[in-house]
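Incident log entry.

Two folding requests arrived from the same account within the same minute. Monitoring flagged them as a possible duplicate submission, but the sequences differ. Recording both here for audit purposes.

Request one:
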Amino acid sequence: MSMLKEFKEFAVKGNVMDMAVGIIVGAAFGKIVSSFVGDVVMPPIGLLLGGVNFTDLAFVLQEAAGDTTAVTLNYGKFAQTVIDFVIVAGAVFVAVKTINSMKKSEEAAPAEPVVEPEPSKEEVLLSEIRDLLKART
């Protein structure tokens, strides 16, 4: 089998395509969450803390001098990233919990009892003949 044909079979399999779609949707969801945290959640929190912009919070380790730029420890950006993570983790948790509860409700649903069809007249007659023959011997 040629390498190209083998790759084509691999790339078109369902689970590879599902994974690719999941990664693309996940990346887009990450951008939405980052925007939500940066543009909706953090400004009110910064306002409550006295008008602080979290992305600007940093410790200056070395001041800028001449052509060298300042060396900073950007803990505000880190805090925003942690909040992004918590929101994404919470959303994934809720999604997985919802999916699991839907699976459990499907499993817990009682299966309809299997109703066996009534035997036909021929089967009843043949059963009676069989029983009579057994009784004779």
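Request two (distinct sequence, not a duplicate):
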Amino acid sequence: MEEHGGGAGSGAHLAVIAGIFATSGSLLGKLAGGADASSLSSLFLKGVLLIFMIVCNTIGCTFFVKALHASGSSLPITIASAATNYICSAFVGYIVFDESTSLTWWCGTSLVLLGLMLICNVPAEKSASAIEEKLKHQ
């Protein structure tokens, strides 16, 4: 089995791929939901889109799990995947559905990602020394 380093960048590329597949799955789900089901051919198209949505989400989950396995912590992987998904969803919505995003949306997205980064940035020495202290007292 291949050894993975616990560095900050470990698995980040896999998390980005997972975020892209999550965006693709969402796009296919929205297209399937908007598809007309009045004829047999349109019902078939809706079914195909739903199947591709499930496939994209399954592949995205697989990449996410691989990213988690390659990383020492789940938090950086979650940030990378969420950031990719948010940004790609905004661009896909703009390109495919002619949706617009407001400054409020971008601020909200930035705050969510900032919160995830703050959660992720726990000083390692402090938590390691706290664990050592607890072990000494036992």
